[in-house]
Amino acid sequence: GKDPYEGLLTNLNARLEEVEYSEVPEEIWKAQGITEKIWVAIQASKVDSRRFVKRQREFAFVNSWCVSEHESAAMWPLYTESGEGIAVQSTFNHLVESLASYGDFDVHIGEIRYLDYNTEAIPQGNVLSPLITKRKGFEHEKELRALIWNGKDSLHNKEPDSALGLSVPVDLNQLIDNIYVSPESPQWFLELVVGITKK
After folding, report:
1. Mean pLDDT, residues 174-185
2. Segments in 33-69 forming alpha helices (H)
């Protein structure tokens, strides 16, 4: 589903940026060896980091899958119109194997982490963390994501290669285990899918 907060840091991340040196007990600073000058530098870098993270969405390309042992009735109306849709069944290993010949960019594949954006923070230090995290309200999707990040260009302020996406060749024989047609599909759509699949 569409989430305007996807790829951004959480509300807790933002609140942590606003913590003043004087608000933290002195024994914590002493134990960590952090002076007020160091703290101000850390906070400034967090603000810069937030701007950097926001820009990374422009350089991220994703392919999403639902991880489930069973068909999800809730997913059909979310992703199809008028019942004219299909679902492709695969496995994690088959997805990885189907991408074996692709070498333009690294493809990172893993399950999405779902967080409460008010009480949990996205760990910083890994540029991909915000791109593999979503709000708990999307937990029903059980998303596995194949992610390509072309953000190295953003370090040099270049524009993304394509606003529309990337064309990534896959071995369909390796990828597809089964194809399911929406239970709401009209007969002509089922016949069309069967015909295309046979070809």
Report:
1. 93
2. 36-56
Question: Which single residue is written with the structure tokens 């046979």?
Answer: 198
Residue 26's φ and ψ, nearest 5 degrees, are -60, -35
83/183 Cα distance (integer angstroms): 7
Separation of CA 8 from chain center = 10
| pLDDT for residue 38 is more than 90 | no
Instruction: Tell me which amino acid residue 28 is.
Output: I
**Coarse DSSP helix, strand, coil percentages of the chain, rounded to the nearest 5 percent:** 45, 15, 40
- For residue 62, give Cα distances in angstroms to 57, 58, 185: 10, 11, 27
Instruction: Please report which residue ranges of 72-199 form alpha helices under DSSP H.
Output: 75-79, 92-98, 172-175, 187-198
pTM to 2 decimals? 0.72
pLDDT at 60: 85
Q: Say if residues 122 and 13 touch (Cβ distance below 8 Å).
A: yes
Tokens of 199: 């070809």
Cβ distance 150 to 62 under 8 Å?
Answer: no
Q: Residues, the chain, total? A: 199
Rounded distance, CA 134 to CA 116, Å?
Answer: 9
CA distance 10 to 70: 31
